[in-house]
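Cross-check.
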Amino acid sequence: MSETRVFLLPDLGEGLTEAELVSWHVAVGDTISVDQPIAEVETAKSTVEVPSPYAGIVAELHGQPGETLDVGKPLISVTPVSVGGPAADAAAPAEPETEPAETELCEALDEPAGTPAQAEAEAYREEEKAGSGNVLIGYGTPGGHGVARRTRARKASSAGSVSTLPLEDGAADGGAAASADVDLSLLRTRVPGRLGAVISPLVRRMAREHGVDLGGIPGSGEGGLIMRRDVEAAISTPAVEERAVAEPRPVAEPAPVAAPVEPRQSETQGVDARTGLAIAARTPVKGVRKVVATNMARSRSEIPEATVWVDVDATGLMELREGLKSGSDQVPGLLAFIARFVTAGLKKYPELNTRIETAEDGSQEIVSFDGVNLGIAAQTDRGLVVPSVRAAEKLTARELDAEIRRLTDVARQGKATPTELGSGTFTLNNYGVFGVDGSAAIINHPEVAILGVGRIIDKPWVVNGELAVRKVTELTLTFDHRVCDGGTAAGFLRFVADAIENPTALLADL
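Predicted model, tokenized:
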């Protein structure tokens, strides 16, 4: 029999370490082909279909729907189909999988050489051997376009890629070394536009176990990829006192073991020990909700934030938009106009379009950007996500409107890419759609500011010394006090507010 191949769950983008198995598209005993979707998984970023890099018969499914699987662990086992079928397998001596001669194929099929059956067998063998090379999000099936694909694999290997790592590092739970080597090569991920990408869960695990911050490591691999040797160098670099601080940490971890037994017993009976109330449900924190919780907690613990707000008369902007409707069917939404004002404001106050980076020695620096990737907070069925409009400062209001609509649509479908979800430099949050006026929003770490827009409602307003009913909204800016002081934040907020109140004058200058 041909040796069963184990396909490990690949990193589906931007260093994700786990994914929830939503559903299987195949069952044990099914015959599958290369690139056939075998499962649907939900990561913290999106929901994607995972294609098989192998052709053959499904031998085992490693996981049940609803189960969370770690990257690098077995997903599916596939047994390659022998051309002659089970009977031919039984008669054939056990030997490593090789390409049989054309005459052997024909004998197994009882077909003369050059027949359609022989051609089909040859095509099957080539498909199984090469793969299509199609790329999903963080990986692609092997081969696909012949020499070019294999050449890149050899270059990565010479640079110290994961294909050179020993199996005892946890790369695979079983199977031949060659098969596991191929699986490990599938785990390579490279995030577009991001240097220092991690190529393997093995590297991430090593860094995590030794407390190494991957964000501060310059990758020595091709295109800035972080290799195993880079992490090993970082492990040997820290001072003795840093290790001394890290070593006592395991001492504090027996806390869960010391937890009282009685509450657990009562909870298993459906009653909460602390409140005495019946437990209605338990919902695991995972997927997008887990990432949001982690990111928000980190933001609140690391960023000394402050908030400023102002009421704005948006009547002028509303009237401008109504006037545009009479002359065109494609009128940008109000959020697109505000996004245009925000990008103009960030040009004038670039301190709010930065990021703080902390080095290994504890020193910090403010990183500025030549451009604005404007994040748009979008509520979806899977949770809050923030896709970003790249180079937003270069787009018109109409172009911003089209891109905002596209991004929110793919985000709600769970199809936004890691690049779209993780490259923002400033966030715009329209919580007015939920019918609220204001919010002290939490900054989307590692950004340093977020602007919130409340609902637009009729309010009494003084205009030229007289009371009038105007369309009023509230703008709220939460900012990182480390990058600027209140004067800068107030200046930016006032700039956007003035643009909303006098949109014609500002748009004429943009």
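Confidence is low (pLDDT under 50) at residues 85-113, 143-196, 239-268. The longest strand covers residues 466-480. Passed to J.P. for a second look.
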